[in-house]
Structure formats: C-alpha cells, structure tokens
C-alpha cells in the first residue's frame, strides 16, 4: 500500500506524457500526409510544409514537461522519492489529466488544421503567415491545459 | 495512401489548370498553329508533337495521363472507375452500333472508341465480338444480350442506348453505394437528374409527349422520371418553375427569355455541367473528402471541353465573343 501513492503519481505522469505523445504523433502524421501530397507536386514548399507539420508536435513536449514536473515533485529526479499517501498520489494523477486529455485531442485536431493549411499554401503560397495562425489557435487550448496541470501540481502539498 | 495525401496532391495538381487569362489568349490566336504554340507553354506541351495538329489526340492523351496518375495514389480505385464508367458504356455503344452497321453492310467505327474508360477498349471489342459478355463488368454481361433482343424487336438504336444508359446509372449507383460515400451517391443522383433534363430537352425538340417519352428517363435521381416526363407537356420556359422544388430547378432558368433555341440549349448544357460541379464543391473545404477526386476530374474534364471548343473555334475562325460565351467554369 505504501507504494500506491507513488504508483498513482507516476501513472498520471505516464498518461500525460504518453497520451499527448500519441496525439502529437497522429497529428504530425496527418499533417505529414498532406505535406507529402503537396511536395510531390511542388518540392519547393518544403520549408513551409515542415513548419506547419511541426506544429502538432508541441503537445508531446507539454506532456514531457509535465512528466518532469511530476518526477521532480515526487523526488525521483533527485533520487530520493518522497513517501506519498494514496490520496496525494491520486491528486497528482488528477492534476495530470488536463494535459493528457487536452493535448491528445488537440494535437489530432491541430494536425487536421495543419493539413488543411498545407493544402492552402499549395494554392496560395503568399498566405503562409495566415495559414500558421489557424492551427496556432488550436494550440491555445493545449497551452491552457498545460497551465492547469502545472498550477494544480503546484498546489498539491506533499 | 490516405485521402489527406490524395487531396493535398490534387490541390497541387489544380495549380496546373488552365486559367481564364490563358483561354482569352488562346481564343485571341489568329491561327491554329498560334493556339498550339500557346498550348505548348502548358502541361499539354508533353503531348504536342512537331507538326501534329490533332488537338483531340493531345487532349485525350492529357486526360488519360491524369487518370493514370490518379490511379497511383487514389485509395479507392472504384472511385475512378465510377467516373470513367460512362466512357466504358460509350465504348460498348460504339461496338454494338458498329456490329449492327456491319450487318447492314456498313463499316465498323472503332475509331470512335475512347481510351478514357476503365476497361481496355480491345477487351470490350473482343468480349462483344466473341459474345463472351461475362468478361465485362458493370452488369454488361446481362444488358448486352437484352440490347440485341431490343434491336431485333424495334430496330431502333435509341432504344438500345436507353437500355445501356439505364444500366450505366444503375451500376454507378451500385458502385457509389458500395464505396459508402454519401456525397458521391448524391452526386450520382444529380448526374441522373442532369441526364434526364438533357433528354427532356432533346425529346421536346422532337415533339414527343410525356407518356411516350417516359421510357427515356432514368430512375435513381432526385426527381422521379414521371415528373421529368410531365415537363414535356409544358413550355420549356416554365420548366424551371415546375422543378423549383429541386436543386436542379435553378439551372433551367437558362431556358427562360431565350428566343434563340440553340443558344438556350448551349446555355442549359453549360448550366448543367456547372451544376454538377457545384454539387460537389463544398468538398473543397474538407482536407480529406474523397469527393475531391471526382471534383478534380470534373474540373479537368471541363478544362478539356473548353480547350476543345476554343481550338475548334480558332481552327474555323469563329467569332471570339461567341467562343467566350461557350466556355464554362473558366477561372
């Protein structure tokens, strides 16, 4: 039972990192498909396509950031894990869920928007700046979920 | 391959469409050589041979190349087959008519066969000439013997064509349903409507009434065949009003306020072609909608048709303003 708290905290960190990573991989895959289609016809659009394809990757980074925050909080980074009660572990788990869920879904949504933006620059290369704004709007909610998770983790007293 | 890739690639390919300024330049050409020289600066240049002025061949080569290119990356081959099916049925009509002509001491007209179908023309000819109809797809194995029977009974080629057109639309419906793409099914329905309207115009010029014309209209559209047949009892100017409940009704405005029948028909034909594009056009806002494949092909076909019109007119020295009016969906 004494390890249950630590298990729950690490499980929370794992789903935060894992789910946001899965979302990013899917999002980048969708945008990559679109980029490949556009570049088959016009290889000169590589830079613009790459920039748009990379956008859904940020959610994976946010997930990783939460993993580090949790590991730091429970003392695993310093090599001295703090003794956690199951309630504390559950609280850390709960704090990880915003990033896990929002980053997972938003990365896929952002991948689709990026794919559409890539198709847009295929026809209107001059609209590159505008095309970056559209998927960036989806990013807002991933950033908000990151903030939620960080604030919640910060307020959990060990 | 996913449709995200497919649609993105189609967006890139759309940049190769000939635009309005090119068509204006083309119809301003004084001679056919000048027009072909202008064409040499476009994607069609790869099919231009030195002194070859056979622009029909050039356009067909480009269309065939597009089908071949799409076949390599469109996930559902049936989607392309669906679009190419009318060419197959047209080829069957050519072969059947040739055989009937030969019986009467005429010649085969296999030069009219189109390469643009999904089935090799040689296979169609061989299957029909050897009566191995089972080798043909789209229910042709069943309908061709019936065509022979209808010909024996009526000696009327038009009846044979109606039978084949009915089978064509039934097969298009079946393939679209099998693909499970509701908007493609919808497009097929609208295509049936457009064909029925075209038939109605032709039949009204022949003076047929509603009852006699009913077999010439096909089911499976959004408008019932008997409702289309009823149009023949009315003046063409009021057809738009009669069908105002349907999406296609607005296109019939082309028949209003026209004293010149030929111009009205040409306008209606243009309006129907543009209508079929409009039916699918909302798909262009979706980054992975399969209908974009059909939409691209429709626009490519429209480009080919415009090119043919422009080149024929330049070759024959027709009035430029007249040519400009004939072009449709030029952007």
Task: Give a brief outline of the structure.
Chain A is mostly helical and 158 residues long. Chain A has five helices and no strands.
Keywords:
heterodimer; A: 158 residues; mainly alpha; Four Helix Bundle (Hemerythrin (Met), subunit A); B: 331 residues; Topoisomerase I, Chain A, domain 4; V-type ATP synthase subunit C fold; 3 domains; 0% strand
Helix segment tally of chain A = 5
Q: Kindly state the percentage of residues in helix of chain A.
A: over 70%
Decide which structural class fits the backbone of chain A. Answer: mainly alpha
Question: What's the CATH H-level homologous superfamily of the largest domain in chain B?
Answer: ATP synthase (C/AC39) subunit, domain 3
Indicate the mean pLDDT of chain B. 87
- Unreliable segments of 5+ consecutive residues of chain A: none
Figure out the total of helices of chain B. 15
Q: Helical residue percent of chain B?
A: 55-70%
Describe it for me?
With 158 residues, chain A is mainly α. Chain A is built from five helices and no strands. Chain A has helices at 4-41, 46-54, 58-73, 86-123, 128-155. In chain A, helix 1 (4-41) runs antiparallel to helix 2 (46-54), helix 1 (4-41) packs parallel to helix 4 (86-123) and helix 3 runs antiparallel to helix 4 (86-123). Chain A is elongated and about 60 Å long. The two termini of chain A are 17 Å apart. Chain B has three domains: 1-75 and 290-331, Orthogonal Bundle (Topoisomerase I, Chain A, domain 4); 76-155; 181-283, V-type ATP synthase subunit C fold (Up-down Bundle), CATH 1.20.1690. In chain B, 64% of the residues lie in helices and 0% in strands. Chain B has 15 helices and no strands. Chain B has helices spanning 3-14, 20-27, 32-39, 55-73, 77-103, 121-129, 140-154, 157-179, 182-206, 210-213, 225-230, 239-242, 261-280, 291-315, 320-326. In chain B, helix 5 packs across helix 6 and helix 8 (157-179) runs antiparallel to helix 9 (182-206). The mean pLDDT of chain B is 87. The interface between A and B is medium-sized, with 17 and 16 residues.
